[in-house]
Queue: 3 jobs
Job 1
Amino acid sequence: MWIHNTACTVMMMPVATGILQRLPRERDGGAGQEEDEVRRFSKAVVLGVVYASAIGGMATLTGTGVNIILVGMWSAYFPEQEPITFSSWMTFGLPMALVLFVALWVTLCLLYCSDNTGKALSAYLDRGHLKRELSLLGPMAFAEKMVLAVFGGLIVLWMTRTLTEDIPGWGVLFHNEVGDGTVTIMMTTLLFIIPNGKSEGEKLMDWNRCRKLQWNIVLLLGAGFAIADGFRTSGLTNILSDGLRFLEGAPIMVIVPVACIFSGVITEFTSDDATTTLVLPLFAELAKSIEVHPALLMISGAVGAQLSYLFPTGSPSNIVGFSTGYITIKDMVATGLPLKVAGVATLTILLPTLGSVIFGGKDNKT
């Protein structure tokens, strides 16, 4: 909820795989029933990290770049509408994230866990043994406390940059010309300044460690934006917009799922941020031309872009999970498809009801 879903997946995946390293991998001679249970459980853990990061990111504006792009385009295309604030989006996004989280838990339990799973894992994940290892770690070191303090400060600064129209955040001190990226860079710079307390002259972060980060994910995002720009400059966006004009005069319960599915299909083949930059301008112009409230199309498009659960190409988080070797594309499709259906259904119910109260437009007209 508080950091980008890709960064969250990168941070949590080593934790998950560290637990899974205790478990036996399948031998060349084939797997017995116990090893099969362990293998399926390993899939559930990796898929759980990938999809939980994406679902949690829906709940707040800082959880994913899609929500930030939505806020920017909303204010640019519809300045007369009430702005989407941190609190207003969280009021809408958190209930949806909770529903999807339950759907994820149920799906993973049904597909990858059975009555014998606990028995198969008991020999490798003994609670008493894990508690002893935790106690051996000892208290938090100075470096750990400092990183936690920087991270906590980052969350506070994110949440308080803009509050409400009546209660301005600290962003007004800088004439609201700073963004979430500014805060992130500032707090990250502190990691290169604060000493780690272990060795003389060493800091919490240095460039040698920073170079080992997965910069290929950044390149992947950039490639997605390039593809989205190609959609616009080639005229493909106009063709797609004309193809959606059949929504003129359609009821809300048709507009919302169609827009969500349209965005949800595109996002499986390019990054969610790139999909958002592609479809939101399209939906903004479409909302004006067919005279429906912009929230119905733009929020549907933004949420649909985040339902990238089927293929590794849909999100950098998916690539992080896929690269562990524990899951296959077949596993992602089998788990992601029910989640995608649950997401579309939840949005179809929440947007015309809760969304109409939060974002306005109790009727569907602009």
Job 2
Amino acid sequence: MESVKLCSSPLYRPKLVQREGMASVMAFCSFSRATLISQQRKGSTSVTKTLEKSSLPERKKVLVPIGLGTEEMEAVILVDVLRRAGADVVLASVESQLEVKASSGTRIIADASISDCSDEVFDLIALPGGMPGSARLRDCEILQTMTSKQAEEKRLYGGICAAPAVALNSWGLLRRKQTTCHPAFMDKLPTFWAVKSNIQVSGELTTSRGPGTAFQFALSLVEQLFGESVAAEVGGSLFMCAESADDSHPRKEEFNKVEWSVDHIPHVLIPIGNGSEGIEVVILIDVLRRANVDVVVASVEKSLQIMTSQDMKIVADKPINKAAESVYDLIILPGGIAGAERLQKSRLLKKLLKEQELAGRIYGAVRSSSEILHKQGLLKNKRVTAHPSIISKITCQIGDNAGVVIDGNLITSKGLSTATDFALAIVGKLFGHARARSVAEGLVFEYPRS
């Protein structure tokens, strides 16, 4: 068995990956292919011709099943990353309805019912974890039959978090396979075959530990489906770039430090629109709610249902006009170019942001949404970070070194793979480092001890 390392990034440092017969994931750098695939999905003729002339691998079919209590970070990261790689991903509900309430309350609408997928052949079946989500997957006879056939026919399958122990093990699909899972479920794995690695590849089976290892899990599956170069390019688009892990690239930087603590449960608004980055939205919701933050997700669209940048459907808690009736300790704008444009068009959201600044309350943005704050004059004399595509549009001090930058009551992030650090930085500011570290441990996300 060979031990290799994924890229060592100051933003995301994985542990050793235990694997059998699979090449290492390369240093993540370019996002050209992910961009082409995204445009191809939206029907760009010129891009389609470019792809036809290229040597891109054939499309692969992937099934990601979800049920009541599925871990939303794992499900959304799996779907998002695999679609960026060019996979044809079906998000299937094992419930009687397509709308599924995930473990931290995110409402996700599946693409299809599992019964509609029973006669399909998939190149990969990947199970997200969460409880009782993993048990709901385990108890689905259709999914059990499909996954058992997948294993028998030597096609790829896998699970993350509780799913390997609760579902795959119950179905007898871990026999003589080295397996990992969430630390809380390790005692339910066959003792001799249980390993404590973030990613474990054993033949056709791939397993992983939790929400904090979901990017690694998804990229490992991308590599197995499409090859090292594609995994490298998709990883680059997620900002999982290989850089030296030293003090010049810290997780976060803070300037003009002020206290964020409040004497009540923090009230946070996350506005979303069509084209918002699903990964960022879900990570923010999941991490903050784990820390006991009252999170309100508000749609700036006419409908509560929004379509994310990678074509996943998420249902907001309220329309923005109803959400605006309350006062928030923190307003966070998720990224996504199209999503940021939709947020920018909301006059009510602009009003809320201006009031937030004037009242000295906290506000922040991920990725491309920093431009919204810039256009409203909310970044004056502030140090920020943002997605490279909009850095040149922001006329203020730019912090290029860290993935997360805090300046007084403002917090910004580069996005995607830095979103977890961004959310944990908020938890740390509101509740202290100990609470942030506790949440990180539950995610199986590496976080500084002090």
Job 3
Amino acid sequence: MFDTLYEWFWWDRIWLPVNLTWADLEDKDGRVYAKASHLYVTVPYTFTFLLIRYLFERWIATPLALSFGIRERVQLKAEDNYILEYYYTTQSRNPPQSDLDGLSKKSSLSVRQVERWFRRRRSQDRPGVLKKFRESSWRFVFYLCAFIGGVVALYEKEWFYDTLEVWRGFPKQSLLDSQYWYYILEMSFYGSLLFSVAFDVKRKDFKEQIIHHLATLTLLSFSWCVNYIRIGTLVMLVHDASDVLLESAKLFNYAKWEGTCQTLFILFAIVFLVTRLIIFPFWLIHCTWVYPLHHYPPFFGYYFFNAMLVVLLCLHIFWAYLILRMIRKFMFGTLTRDERSDNDVEEEEESTSTEDEGAEKHKLGNGLAVDEKNKNGYLSPQEYFSRPKTVQ
């Protein structure tokens, strides 16, 4: 059974054009070809990247953040409460008003205490600026190194300047050392991102990020096995170009260098739109959609590879929409947060100096209880705790 599935999976007609077999891609005549077995090395490299990231964030990114004045956020911890914790983890992080009364009765707490518990519990899960800075620092360093390495590996290659050369002599194109390391390191890095996605800062496009990482790994793995390596290196280089600017803009945003952040974000938006919505579809997808038909008839691998590229293009369009929304708000002075950020993550910081467990007994400056009727013009409890902190 297993042998049958194995033979079917590696059937030549699925992976290779007609009249070609795996025997044609065996090393001979001084040519070395990429093999699926080479990809096994990405597994230990993936965990190596996770270890390097941990050490980098601890010994380099954290001291750098501290030099910019970025500190761990001090927050109040929600008291242990099994009933509320169970609801929080299994049903909703932000319970509707209809559930608050029931939770209040079950937990023997007032409605306001339940609301406060959920605010503090969400605050515990909310990533601080230091965590975001460390994460962006690691990605910035990798993308910068990958982009520079990609340019060094490709700038002398014919297919870097003429995409017709991508398919010249295909599939009998010998694997170069630079291509090998470019692929292995990129795949290992995206593998590490897939492993760490549950612990990284969660944003609105969490599902799209998962799809992106899976599509990227599938695309790179497939292109490696069928020797689509030349076009694969071009795809990686186009993606790394804008990612460097995005992560650098985030770093300066967390450091509150607003002018530098805004400049880098504008540059990122320009590079993203040019590389992802112009070069990627009209040069690279055109190269994989049209030029191969000049050399061989379409086969399953041809359709599959192009389908994966279209999936990436759809994600690019989605992110371009968010970027344009941010630019519009930036131009009209209404940009206050990242469009990709989760609403819970970006909710206003809870006050640590005016709200405590005895909020029901909290007194205003003249000694009157907050929960008294607002007959003397004082704020009601709901108004008091929901108003902006700047007016307190």
